[in-house]
Specification:
Layout: H1 12-35, H2 39-51, E1 54-55, H3 56-63, H4 67-79, E2 83-87, E3 95-99, H5 101-121, H6 127-150
Antiparallel strand pairs: 1-3, 2-3
Helix pairs in contact: 1-5, 3-4
Length: 155
């Protein structure tokens, strides 16, 4: 145990969450106003565009989003006819989500704007710093995933 008291503003898990939420809020306010999408809805569209037809369970694994958020987003997107649902041949209890033509058009409209927003947000970093940040996040992701898999995170 460390003798250093917990200071939330210096606690890295909090800092990661705070910064992630701040960046997500910036993007959500932009795309919510322009396209009527929530953060979970945009994430689903992006994952489906990237992966192709995919189950909600797989989306949960890829995004680390909880089942309820994914389910609500999928329902909302289906109601707006942005995603399609088809039977999952590998699991009769689930469906595969795919982008409808309207959903594909929406994605193709948003994706370049998202990339431009990313450039503006991270313009305060040099290209080397952005690459280093990405590499550091990859290492933390891999280590935390290994800890979860070993049960080490429970203790």
């Amino acid at each position: 145990m460390s003798d250093t008291p917990l200071r939330l503003g210096r606690f890295l898990p909090y800092r990661l969450s705070f910064t992630s939420n701040l960046v997500s809020e910036m993007i959500a306010s932009r795309y919510g106003a322009l396209f009527g999408l929530t953060i979970p809805e945009w994430r689903l569209i992006a994952v489906i565009a990237e992966q192709g037809a995919i189950s909600q369970q797989a989306i949960c694994q890829i995004t680390r989003m909880d089942k309820v958020s994914v389910s609500r987003a999928a329902i909302a997107l289906a109601e707006r006819e942005l995603v399609t649902r088809s039977p999952n041949p590998d699991d009769k209890r689930s469906h595969l989500l795919g982008l409808s033509p309207i959903g594909r058009d929406l994605y193709e409209n948003i994706a370049p704007r998202a990339m431009a927003m990313e450039s503006r947000i991270f313009a305060c970093l040099t290209p080397d710093e952005r690459a280093s940040l990405g590499a550091l996040l990859d290492r933390v992701d891999a280590h935390a995933t290994a800890m979860l898999g070993s049960g080490e995170a429970a203790g």
